[in-house]
Fold each of these.
Amino acid sequence: MAKQLPDLKFSQLFNISFGFFGVQIAYALQSANISRIFATLGADPHSLSFFWLLPPIMGMIVQPLVGKYSDRTWTRWGRRIPYLFVGALVAILVMCFLPNAGSLGMSVNTAMIFGAVMLMLLDTSINMAMQPFKMMVGDMVNEKQKTTAYSIQSFLCNAGSLVGYLFPWLFATFGLSGTAPQGEVPDTVKFAFYIGAAILIVCVVYTSLLVKEYAPKEYNEYHPVDEPESSEKEPGFLELLRKAPSAFWTVGLVQFFCWAAFMYMWTYTAGSIATVAFDAPTILKEGKVVLDTTSSQYNAAGDWVGVLFAVQAIGSMLWAVVLPRFKNIKMAYFVSLVLGGIGFISVSFLSNQYALFASFLLIGAGWAAMLALPFTILTNALKGGHVGSYLGLFNCTICLPQIVAAALGGVVLGFFTTPGELAPEVNMLVLAGVLLLVGSLAVWIIKDKE
């Protein structure tokens, strides 16, 4: 019979997840600035979503492998931490190159290809660094404390987001240039990536030094498997999927609607805010009406997107404190996604840049639930020696909807666009709200172990 995992001190739960703070700064910088970077390089709004295809595709390949092989990795530094360290190292290097895609003397097309490759590597490495934190909670935290542990992760995640989102706006406030020549990224964005990389180094080293993972013998006392594992009997991914608990599939369905919604937020918020709140000027480019990305209004809107995403992070942190107070985890999930859906839809009705704070506070509630509750439900339904493999496979429920949303984004935006007029990117945020509302209804079909 398996031994019960011991209760951990709050400081121990905090240390397990602290590196998440630095990783999320990198993720926030990516989320808030990638569409702005590619628009600056010359991408058309209808093609913006295609640049977001490579990251989730790589995530679907890399994350299950990280989970599977970290389940079988035992080193003097731990089983999950080596993967965390390698992922963070790659992310740090890419963060120094990506914002310079337009400053290396390359042609427009070459610069966009270079930027796309850097984005792929950045997203892959961030996810490689992020996934071990979720796995360590599954390895080291008992069921009673998991909601608290994932809520701490959610809090740190959103605290990191808050910092990352605000960096460009803060640097502009302190006097760094918020505009740049055609095809180049402003200094406010460049230095945000540089400082974010430095913080990531500190956070990952902190977690690596203070968290001691269980040795194999001790781990197996808490997580016994039904039969001894061997190379001949090691199940493949298809076998694991066949034996996956119902929670894996039913939570995965909710995940589909949620992550598709947030893919549209990351892709189209910059253009939406520039249009609805900053009245950014347009130009005619190759026969299409597009926003003038060199204008002060567009770049002010780009910095303000970081502020709005920071407000979302504040909403997420506040809501993460509320989530454990729900007695029914499904009700917590449902209410959170409804609030997020309302937040997305309300953006289309607000033209004041400060009134948009209300919208993004509500969006933050949905985001907080997405970060904490799916993993609480899933890890409570898992047992045995394949927790990492299942969490890696579960990452596909994050990547797949992003792939579908990115592939269809330009087509859907085309349906909303009148020839000869600017593409109404804000309509994609309304669609994101509808997707979250559908996801909230899907919550009620989740089958957890109870």
Note: Residues 225 and 384 are 4 Å apart (CA to CA).
Amino acid sequence: MQGALRLAALDRAARRAGLVPGLTLADARARVPGLAVLDYDPAADAAFLEVVADDCDRWTPLVALDTPEGVPDGLMLDITGCAHLFGGEAALRTRLLAHLQRHGVSARAVIAGTPDAARALARSGQGGVVPPGGEAQAVAGLPVARLGVSAQIVTGLSRAGLKTIGDLAARPGTPLAARFGAELLTRLARTLGREDVRLVPRRPLPECIAERRFAEPIARTADIEATLALLIDDLALMLEARGAGGRAFEACFFRTDGAVRRLKIETARPLRDGVALARLWRERIEALADPLDPGFGFDLVRLGVLRAEKLTPAQVSLDGRAVEEEEVAALIDRLSVRLGRERVLRFLQRDTHDPDRASALVPAGGASLPAPPPSPEAPARPLTLFDPPQPVEALAEVPDGAPLRFRWRRVVHEVAHAEGPERLAPEWWRQPGAAPTRDYYRVENREGRRFWLFRAGLYEREAQAGAGAPRWFLHGLFP
């Protein structure tokens, strides 16, 4: 029986026939001969729930997956401050269920003051709207298993005669915490509506949002662009009131069949200019490899600012530098939108002594990070480095001294001048013990060419470790 197939989930008809989860398939078919079954696919269920969650963003941006046992099997919507837009909580619930029903999704919804109270009532087969402060009365008759505690705690409570949440709420908390742990009291307080816990939305909450709903869905490109232009103007007013500009924007297109299409753009500097934003969105839509398919039309278009920064009015300098910077930033925005953010790069200086990590290529439209000021005591380094460093054969007068000559690419270079060493230890907090200590030298040969060499390892350490003599490498060339 351990390897027998069992029922994982049931529809309403199967439950009415007396079937329960965990029942073996053989027993289930003995009770219901014409039972239709499908293989349990939790990955497909989770993917479908993600699609439903995307569609539920039309009601509130605060949508979270409900995972009481580690597996997502429901949704939590925080409608605080949103219900009045749909005629109140009861009207919002009715419209939500009707919308899901039209798309073939049968759901049960409960509106309560805390997520735990709503979850307990919904999983008990109830629905409706719990009046403010009425959570304790609404959940009093539910079994203690609806608190979401472990099976051992439920068994212990049942043996103690505490079978409902109301029975548990009537008992003093100290003995319960001493016997079953403090988590039981926490879940009880949240289910009774005495303690609230905030949801963690599956998507970051935008800083500001503008949207348009349509009684008749739109499908033409001209209508979509006109709608985006109106939303851009709304966002520009919001950002201007805050003295900020957007750095990341997201447009969400909700189709009548429940599908949602999302497009994002990022800018190289804070932006709230309507003309520039409209041009970027137009190029973003035109550059789509997969065209924006409206299906039977979009009944909701939303534009949000995912990240905003302070925007101060630019003062045009006499040399025109401010105008040039604005033009370069606009060019970066247009190239990033058309070619992709990861294809338009810039160099970023890092605050590190490791020359291999001193600079990096990052998206040009990313966050502007100030470059660390160069240390006046640090020796000059080449602008370009070999990756990886090139091995050379070097000869020094003393083992730990500067090189007298070295061979690189079969050519022997006689050293006329040498400066160093600059000893650089590896960043042990990033790669503990991964690389030896380096001694860097700036050397100049008799022809006047300048090189940046380093010796990898210290003679005493390498000898103790039995690794042999340290090796020499050429890391860069000076112009």
Note: The chain is about 30% helix and 25% strand.
Amino acid sequence: MFRPENAQSFVGLALIILACWAFSEDRKRFPWKLTIGALILQGLLVLALFGVPALRAGLAGVGTAVDGLASSTQAGVAFVFGFLAGGGDQPYQLTNPGAMFVFAFRVLPVILVVCALAALLWHWRILKWVTQGFGFLFEKTMGLRGPPALATAATVFMGQVEGPIFIRSYLKTLSRSELFMLIAVGMSCVSGSTMVAYATILKGVLPNAAAHVLTASIISAPAGVLLARILVPRRPEDETEGEADPAQDKVYESSIDAMIKGTSDGLQIVLNIAATLIVFVAIVAMINGILGLFPPVGGAPLSVERGLGAIFAPLAWSIGVPWKDASAAGSLLGVKLVLTEFTAFIRLGATPIGALDERTRVIMTYALCGFANIASVGMNVAGYTVLVPERRSEVINMVWKAMVSGFLATCVTAAVVGAMPRELFAH
């Protein structure tokens, strides 16, 4: 049943698209067909995935698979770290079992296992076929050329820098619009490894968490393409055909080689995530310590989180969050942008069930599910410098705009979900 709260989300959709058009590099080339098509495609995907019993059952199966993956990972973690991992017999009496959920032992190891499995599935060509299938879908439904469509699909499963690797030999020939689109889409989605990690974090507070996270990353890709094409419109005259280099395809010598290299790649990702979280959280803690020296405002001390909540509360309301939750939701959006989405998901997972409306929690899951944050700016500059060094200055010139595009793309996805009746997501 549709309610006024669903109409509220259309306000956010209109404002976001209007803002992107206002800052477009060519306002006369507004992609009307793509705008209508992308929003309809997102809506249909949400309705199909949660409204069609067979597909809904498939998404529930994803949740079961994630639970199995997490428990299997814990077996490996317990073997290496013993009782520190929170499993098995503890050498002391627990007074607070909840404190045994340690991020370094429960979430980060899952990324290692998923990266190894992804490499294995790529070697067996299963993941490659899935990626090519999604690439074909993006090519036919959104008018993308073959190479950018393939990279967009790969980004959904592999990550913001890993996805473009699959068309590395084409990168130097892409138009400015296509290159910007790849960077923006990379920040509007998350990788397969982090999808599982986010689902693990939200498992206790969000029913069907794995289904929502998977859906969020997939349907944010069309939103990323849309906003990127509005900000930097396509110019067919700038598009040239490039030649592929088969030697640059991702190849493993055997299944064991795939698992070893996948684990090695995963370790680098885990170290980057852990180091980034430590540094960014520490910096915010220092800022909050300084703000704490000032007199309280509104009966509470000043903090980065309160400031971000005030700034982004209107945006949170416009995508469908009720005003009573807007400050908390706005704070999560700000934390995602400044401190990475991992930190935002951790805070969303730590928010008690009764503290947020159930619909707000669903909407925010979609709004947070993207790599658009300040840390990703550096990752993209570093990654593309290696992949296509001759276009480094061009990447630096557009990466901040791409971050904003990716951030707003997840908000578009959240607004589309907010426009749906809440009964669709009832568990």
Note: The chain has 18 helices and no strands.
